[in-house]
Amino acid sequence: MSERVWWRDGVVYQVYPRSFADANGDGIGDLQGIRCKLPYLVGLGVDALWISPIYPSPMADFGYDVSDYRGIDPLFGDIEAMDALIADAHAMGLKVILDFVPNHSSDEHPWFRESRRSRTSAFRDWYIWRDPAPDGGPPNNWLANFGGSAWAFDQGTGQYYLHLFLDKQPDLNWRNPVVREAMYEAMRFWLRRGVDGFRVDVLYHVMKDAAFRDNPPNPDYREGIDASANRFLPEHTADLPEVQGVVAAMRAVVDEFPDRVLIGELYLPLDRIVAYYGEHLDGANLPFNFLLIGAPWEARFIGGLVERYEAALPKGGWPNWVLGNHDKPRIASRVGDAQARVAAVLLLTLRGTPTLYYGDEIGMHDVPIPAAQARDPFERNEPGKGLGRDPQRTPMRWYPREGAGFTRGTPWLPIGDHVDTINVDSQERDPASLLSLYRGLLSLRREHPALSRGGITVLGCNDAVLVYARCDEGQRFIVALNFSAAEATSHVPLQGDLVLSTYAGEGGVALRANEARILRVPSAG
């Protein structure tokens, strides 16, 4: 590879704006708060920040119900604050990625208000409307991701509208070319203001079956355990062939501007994830790879997953890896504190662009949220199933004090326990902290091309240990990860100069419990 490409060689850091930093003391994070913390991101060593939605919204789904695609919600600031954040980020060498929510708008968006005014409205076909079934019920069996039917009845016009999420999030009709062009213009609005790209929310859902056929039953559905939407397989509501045309068109819009990126949110099997690169690499630059999030935390499985993913990539397609996000439990809660250190080494030494979720670098855990304090509509609609997303969205911990340095006011979600140790200030002064480990790893990635753009070869794995090599431009590194809580060895010789370990000291032939090592060795080539 030739020159450095920021979205390929760099690291993305996801900011959930409600929970990152609150500058005005109302308990909710804001753009000025993010702006004040940009030096922290520079010092951490990331290259780009992806900001979850900050558009005007009634906040039924905390910003994923957009009422104006070209504005900023007053909770977060205003358009001038966004411009200032972009300018400051660029001056510090950081890129800015915005969330884009094309599948649905808010029911308070002017487009939908006009659409539901009458069946003859010029905006009627901007959304998906259907007559009732013969019995007066919903047009088909499609279910909403947050529970219940995906169809809501509108008394005023006597038809149902589609909402694959909340009834306050009506689905836009992407088969209407006027809708498509309006959304592409919304993208251009932000690109012209200097935004460096988009992470596209539920990209695989934007097209639905034109014949509105029922989805087939899911034979693996577990009543009372699984989300109710999983009762049927989304054969006619997700990953339709026509989605690829939309992805290519979005990419074409992004490519009108130099050095930008298109990232797609995709909860799909591996063979379908890689399809979103596009037949001619004209799709998403980075179709999000969430496979690590749900993977068994076992050396053999992770090693096999890496090999399967690498083999499935289209020629020229650039990989990416994600350990956590605002929708899934945090990595430290999934694997424990000791293995969270191993996970950090894994994420930042695999081939591909890593995305780091805010707070994971200090080992934040999911925070238990009492039912009375639950804010997430998923938890409220389907309580008791462990589907709520509030626990992984709690405020960032900056200092070991009341409010954790996040706010002077009452935080919108509880901050949780162990603030005295799980905070930026304390860990910055501890060379053995998880934050120090992340900073060391990010520095190594930036210093050594082999750890960012280099090739990868899985050298071996057993029940406990995974070993792989990263090679590029005369550099060769060996990465060895012990996924177990006991000392373990590998048949692969761990020879070379120790560059980094999750333990102090050199160690022996065997990896210590929960240890990860990076060794530099002479290149084989």
Percentage of residues in strands: 5-15%
CA radius of gyration: 23 Å
Total number of strands: 16
Give the helix proportion (percent range): 10-25%
Strand order of the largest sheet: 9-8-7-3-2-1-11-10
Q: What's the rounded overall pLDDT mean?
A: 97
Poorly predicted tracts of residues: none
C-alpha geometry: globular
Q: Calculate the terminal CA-CA distance, rounded to whole Å.
A: 17 Å
Individual helix count: 15
Quaternary form: single chain
Task: Look at the helices and sheets and give the structural class.
Answer: alpha/beta
Report the major sheet: 8 strands, parallel
Tell me about this structure.
With 525 residues, the protein is an alpha/beta fold. The chain contains 15 helices and 16 strands. An 8-stranded parallel β-sheet has the order 9-8-7-3-2-1-11-10. A hairpin with a 2-residue loop joins β13 (465-472) and β14 (475-482). The longest helix has 16 residues, at 177-192.
